[in-house]
């Protein structure tokens, strides 16, 4: 299934994209896509509801805004430098263990919402990433069992303010957590839609120019390794998001001068099987 949420910010309703591309309102299935939904039998109930009701469910007009593809989770855990070439362009060694950092959940927005360049920012940058959505509580999970804890995957742009991430001391979280820095979606693809998450081409363009173009095959630590690893340090709750790192081509890596976003820039990105998104950069109020 392909899960969407649609409507005005903070008032989104659950929906689905059908195989024929039609977007339907799934409110009548009974639940938003939140922790309780993923942790219970929400996906099974939704599938049963869709089987019986999809053809008669109300269509969502193509002009209706898409929200983030799941309700606000308890956490976004990000993986740093998980593509070997990206580590190289950042001038950092290939990590021996996954590098983890948090991103605030208040940074989550819809896939095509504006990117607001934060006040005082001069180094706002892009990062196309595959996000893992946790389906079942994960605590001390083995790599062999890890995939049973995954509900699905989504497209994510891990926007980053490089000066705040790298030049202001302390943890990366300062440069990762601004409002609008986590567009999620267009949809959450359940695991049956993505038989192998480690072969997906992913790309990102700025103003029509391709800046990132790689495949999830280049990830240093794969999906089961990441779920298992992170679950040794914290309990992953249903609906939690793991963002799996970005390939080369971020603005910070350009030589001789890095490229950062300015108002009016258009960022488009996609992952095969996970759809595409588009953000227009705007100045902060
Ligand atoms: Zn990232």
Key features?
single chain, 285 residues, alpha+beta, Fumarylacetoacetate hydrolase, domain 2, 2 domains, nine-stranded mixed β-sheet, five-stranded mixed β-sheet, 5 helices, 18 strands, 13% helix, binds zinc ion
Shape: globular
CATH architecture of the largest domain: Alpha-Beta Complex
Number of strands: 18
The CATH class name of the largest domain reads Alpha Beta
Helical run tally: 5
Poorly predicted runs: none
Structural class of the secondary elements?
alpha+beta
Order of strands, main sheet, comes to 3-2-1-13-10-9-16-4-5
Number of discrete domains: 2
C-alpha termini separation: 38 Å
At the fourth CATH level, what is the homologous superfamily of the largest domain?
Fumarylacetoacetase-like, C-terminal domain
Classify the beta-strand content into a percent band: 25-35%
Radius of gyration: 18 Å
CATH topology of the largest domain: Fumarylacetoacetate hydrolase, domain 2
Largest sheet: 9 strands, mixed
| Helix-strand pattern | EEEHHEHEEEEEEEHEEEEHEEE
């Amino acid at each position: 299934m392909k899960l969407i949420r649609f409507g005005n910010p903070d008032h989104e309703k659950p929906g689905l994209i059908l195989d024929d591309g039609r977007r339907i309102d799934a409110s009548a299935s009974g639940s938003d896509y939140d922790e309780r939904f993923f942790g219970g039998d929400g996906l099974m109930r939704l599938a049963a509801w869709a089987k019986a009701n999809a053809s008669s469910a109300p269509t969502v007009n193509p002009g209706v805004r898409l929200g983030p593809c799941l309700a606000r989770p308890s956490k976004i855990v990000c993986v740093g430098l998980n593509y070997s070439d990206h580590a190289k362009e950042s001038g950092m060694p290939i990590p021996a263990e996954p590098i983890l950092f948090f991103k605030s959940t208040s940074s989550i927005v819809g896939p095509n919402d504006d990117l607001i360049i934060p006040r005082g920012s001069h180094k706002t940058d892009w990062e196309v990433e595959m996000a893992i959505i946790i389906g079942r509580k994960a605590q001390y999970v083995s790599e062999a069992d890890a995939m049973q804890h995954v509900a699905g995957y989504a497209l994510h742009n891990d926007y980053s303010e490089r000066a705040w991430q790298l030049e202001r001391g302390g943890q990366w979280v300062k440069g990762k957590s601004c409002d609008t820095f986590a567009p999620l979606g267009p949809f959450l693809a359940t695991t049956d839609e993505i038989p192998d998450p480690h072969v997906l081409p992913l790309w990102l363009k700025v103003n029509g120019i391709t800046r990132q173009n790689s495949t999830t095959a280049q990830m240093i630590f794969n999906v089961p390794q990441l779920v298992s690893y992170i679950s040794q340090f914290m309990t992953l709750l249903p609906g939690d998001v793991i963002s799996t790192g970005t390939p080369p081509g971020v603005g910070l890596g350009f030589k001789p001068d890095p490229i950062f976003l300015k108002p009016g820039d258009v960022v488009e990105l996609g992952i095969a099987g996970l759809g595409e998104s588009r953000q227009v950069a705007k100045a902060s109020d």
